[in-house]
Amino acid sequence: MPLDSSQPRLAAGCRWGKDGEDRVVLFPEGMIRLQGTGQTVLELCDGEHTLQEIVESLSKRYKTDTAKIRDDVATFLEALRQKRVVDY
Amino acid sequence: MTSNPLALIAEITHRCPLHCVYCSNPLQMMGVESELPTEEWIRVFREAARLGILHAHLTGGEPLARADLKELVEAAHSAGLYSNLITSGVGLSESRLAALVDAGLDHIQLSFQDSREQSANWIAGAKAHAHKVALAETIRRFRIAFTVNLVVHRQNLDHLEEMIAFAEQLRPHRMEIAHAQYYGWALKNRDTLMPTRHQLESCLQVVGEAQERLSGRIRIDCVVPDYYARYPKACMGGWGRSVILINPGGEVLPCHAAGVIPGMQFDNVREHSLEWIWQKSAAFQRFRGEQWMAEPCRSCERRTVDFGGCRCQAFLLTGESSATDPVCTLAPTHHLVESLQLETDVEERPEDVVWSYRMNPAQEGRHVNSRPRHLDPSSR
């Protein structure tokens, strides 16, 4: 699981692309189409923002309990790390 | 309305320094004089992106045989395509790789014939193994996706665990374990390539264990040989449904092997737009949808899962391109595959393995070569 100080970024060989009007993440075997919060989180995964900063940015936007957001984002990022879409 | 294609397989040349006995290229190959020029490919990549294609797989032959590869990668990248180089690595130096990565290359897929050098060179008909091993280390220095591709068959499946361990220490992000598929040169060599049922079963177990062990570290994708499957593969995700292949001369095909089907005529990107070819050309319409299907496919609930299997395989094995793929256990011609299984399913090996090596259209061809197995220590 990522730490507060982790700086997640798209994994090697994964990058943003476009499918029609949708922003998608392309990788060797295909692509994922992201919407809403998932897309917001991944757009912040630039290798510079820390997990803590990502969580702060989301909690400002959604006015939800920070601990809950942190749990959700960490789980989401870990799942994408397992799929080799992000690393940290 | 036809859905849009997602992937373009760009066979940019048939030239190749390797002579792999399972090559998917057709037996009749094109020479350098018929290859599509740089500017035509650049236009094709732009058209492909406009058509909705996301991935461009640059393959061959050996794509590095083209001196303009960097320009082609650049063109694919600037059109917005995700570019994948499918290569033997022969002809790739660190500086050339750096130039390709600079040009926007996203993914490199490096193939290995075996973990054992002597056997690998024997299967490839060329001394390439040591170079590939050294190249893997170079690739790791760049921030691109790296896949190691292992082609497996009767002659190397008995030490698959060793092959996976070998691939693991090359530290790729992904490993592809691909059983030879029997088209082109592989069909010519089918007798010596087709695994026994026992080999296949133990392969699935070994792969399953490796997938578990390497989970989260190296992703393993395994392509199984469908001769032993219960139902056929959804070849290319269905005819004219998601993939376009362009051969070195610019002809546009629904798959690698479609040229074997009698009466097929392929339109060329030199004369037509890719969009017109995808939507209107006879080749892409011929087996698109369900109209062409005969029974048992026509009323089968799996017709939307496997699309009747592979048209080329149906033709190659039954002589009838619109027949149900004979690997399907429901096919009236399934006995053809069963008898192939029986012929193959003997544990004894012939003393001599006689290959038909793939020819290189850039050189004089080498048709047949053989090496007595018992003289080959690496195969023990």
**Bulk shape of chain A:** globular
Number of helices of chain B: 14
Q: Estimate the strand proportion of chain A.
A: 15-25%
Unreliable segments of 5+ consecutive residues of chain B: 365-380
Flag low-confidence runs of chain A.
none
- Mean pLDDT value of chain A: 92
Q: Please give the order of strands in the largest beta sheet of chain A.
A: 2-3-4
Give the H and E element order of chain B: EHEHEHEHHEHEHHHEEEHHHHHEE
Main sheet attributes: strand count, strand direction, barrel closure of chain A: 3 strands, antiparallel
The overall strand count of chain B is 11
Which word captures the global form of chain B? Answer: globular
Oligomer: heterodimer
Describe what this molecule looks like in 3D.
The complex is a heterodimer of chains A (88) and B (380). Chain A is of the alpha+beta class and 88 residues long. Chain A is 43% helix and 22% strand. Chain A contains 3 helices and 5 strands, in the order ββββαααβ. Chain A has helices at residues 36-44, 51-62, 66-82, and strands at 9-10, 15-19, 22-27, 30-33, 86-87. In chain A, the strands form 2 sheets. Chain A has a 3-stranded antiparallel beta sheet, with no helix packed on it. A two-stranded antiparallel sheet of chain A has the order 1-5. In chain A, α2 (51-62) packs across α3 (66-82). Chain A is globular, with a radius of gyration of 13 Å. The model of chain A has no long low-confidence stretch (mean pLDDT 92). By secondary structure, chain B is of the alpha/beta class. Chain B contains 14 helices and 11 strands. Chain B has helices spanning 38-50, 69-78, 94-102, 117-124, 129-139, 160-168, 184-188, 190-193, 197-214, 274-280, 282-286, 303-306, 311-318, 334-344, and strands at 7-11, 55-59, 82-87, 107-112, 145-152, 174-179, 219-223, 243-246, 252-253, 352-356, 368-372. Chain B has a 9-stranded mixed beta sheet with strand order 7-6-5-4-3-2-1-8-9. In chain B, β3 (82-87), α3 (94-102) and β4 form a beta-alpha-beta unit. In chain B, α1 (38-50) packs parallel to α2 and α2 (69-78) packs parallel to α3. Classes of the chains: A alpha+beta (88), B alpha/beta (380). The A-B interface holds A 11-15, 17-20, 24, 26-31, 81-84 and B 52, 54-55, 80, 82, 84, 106-107, 109, 143-147, 173-174, 215-216, 219, 221.
